[in-house]
Amino acid sequence: MRLKRTLLTSLLAIPALLITNSASATPVSGQANIAGNVTVQDGTIAFAPTFTNTAGAAETGDFAGLTGGTIQALTGGPKTGTLATPLVGFINFTTGLATPITFDLTYIAPGVGTQAGCLSAALGSECTPNGSPFTLFQLSSNTVIASLQLNGVSYTGTSGSGSSPTTAIFSTQTAINGTLPDIYNLLVAGGAVSGVTYSASFVATPGNPTTPEPASMMLMGIGLIGAGLAARRRVRS
Length: 237
Prior knowledge:
By secondary structure, the chain is α+β, with helices and mostly antiparallel strands. The chain has three helices and 14 strands. The termini are far apart.
């Protein structure tokens, strides 16, 4: 009888333990700005595993003090849409923070360009290969920039309970040499776009998420790239 009571007590304690663990996360708010390196192939976005904060950009809210962290590569499909299983710990904001922040990836937004745009080298053309999350933009006669939107949740703790909806906008920080047809044909042939630096801005807002409109996303991407190019020109001068 005593053994039965002990077993029953243990079983009853399990749900309480699970509730305690699942509620151990805390929502976060604020903005993080990061920079790193990435290599892109058809179906693969290979981020360098570590990143730093973007030079000159100020982190706000719970991200204040951030200087770096780690990020996973994205491989395989689906290339866009809601992930069947969230990618837990896709990004970990760790360095410079008293309490690390975790970003779980839940959604990869489709690009806002067109397939037809991939065949044009005209200035201002926008290209999104079928099923791709990238928006490629012909910035000049021989340079292309790219943007990418990822959505998910951010939190501190050990689980996603009590998290904040978070939108991330990634942009190439250095323009890619070539034209939209050049890059499109390279990727279709199985090649890789390498040696690319990126910057990204994360905005975490507890409550309902605010997702940028496609046009706003592209403008934000161009703005981040322009800021990066301007900063490099100042450094060289």
